[in-house]
Amino acid sequence: MSSDASGCQSAYCNQGWSEVLTHMSPYGWGSFGIAFGLGLSVVGAAWGIWLTGSSLVGAAVKAPRIRSKNLISVIFCEATAIYGVIMAIVLNGLMKKPEDSSYVDGVFSEGWDYNTWYFAGFGVFCSGLSVGLTNVASGISVGVAGSSCALADAQDPTLFVKILIVEIFASALGIFGIIVGIIQSNSSQFPDKLIN
Questions:
Q1: What is the CA angle 33-127-27, rounded to 5?
Q2: Which of 14, 121, 160, 168 is most buried by a 10 A CB count?
Q3: What are the residues facing 104 on neighbouring strands?
Q4: What is the phi/psi pair of residue 107, to 5°?
Q5: Average pLDDT, integer, range 5-17
Q6: Which class is 32-96+114-185 in CATH?
Q7: What is the mean pLDDT of residues 96-121?
Q8: How far is CA 182 from each of CA 89, 126, 150, rounded to the nearest angstrom?
Q9: Is residue 63 a contact partner of residue 23, using CB atoms and an 8 Å limit?
C-alpha cells in the first residue's frame, strides 16, 4: 500500500467528491432534503418568534395595550414553519419505493435507470434546501419587522398598520420559497418500474 504526499495510505484517498455524490442513496439525498426543509423552516420560525416575542414582551411593560394585536407578528413567524411542514409532506410523497420485484432490501438489479433515480434524489434535496433556507430568511425578516412593529406601536398606535404591511411583504418570502420548491420538485419522480 502506497502513501501520497498527504500521508494517506488508504485505497479510498484518491477518490473525489464525485464518489460522495454518486455513492449515497438517492433516497438518502431526498431524506436529507426533507430534513433540511423542515428543520430550517422551524429554525426560521423560532428565530422570528424569539425576535418578535422579546420585543413585544418588553414593550408591553410600558404599553400593555399592544399585547393582543401584536400577536399577529408571532402568527406570521409561525407560518414559515407551516410552509416547511407542507413541503416536507409534498416531498415525502415523491419518494416512493419501487414496486418491481428486482428491488430487494435497497439493492437494485440490472435494468434500472440510475440517472433518473439520482436526478430525483438531487431534485428533492435541492427543493428541500431551497425551502428551508428561504424560510430561515423569511422567519428572521418577519421577526425583525414584528419587533419593530411592537416597538413602534408602543410609541405611536398609528404606525401599527403601516409596519404590519412591511411584515406581510417579509412573510411573502416564505411563500415564494415554497413555490420555487414545488417547481423544483415537479420533475423529481422516483422510478417504480424497470425500463423495458
A1: 40
A2: 121
A3: 107
A4: -105, 130
A5: 59
A6: mainly alpha
A7: 65
A8: 11, 11, 34
A9: no
Q: Measured at the alpha carbon of residue 110, what is the angle toward residues 107 and 113, in degrees to the nearest 5?
A: 90
Q: What residue segments make up the domains of the chain, in order of their start?
A: 32-96+114-185
Of 137, 127, 115, nearest in space to 44 by CA: 137
Helix (H) / strand (E) element for 104: namely strand 103-104
User: Measured in Å, how far apart are the chain's first and last C-alpha atoms?
Assistant: 44
Do 131 and 86 contact (CB within 8 A), yes or no? no
Name the amino acid, one letter, at 88: A
Task: Please write down the HEC assignment for all residues of 149-194.
Answer: HHHHHHHCCCHHHHHHHHHHHHHHHHHHHHHHHHHHHCCCCCCCCC
Half-sphere exposure of 64 (CA within 13 A, CB side): 0
pLDDT-wise least confident of 31-40, 68-77, 99-108, 146-155: 99-108
Contact predicate 77/139, CB 8 Å: yes
C-alpha cell at 41: 423552516
- Please give the grid coordinates belonging to residue 157: 398606535
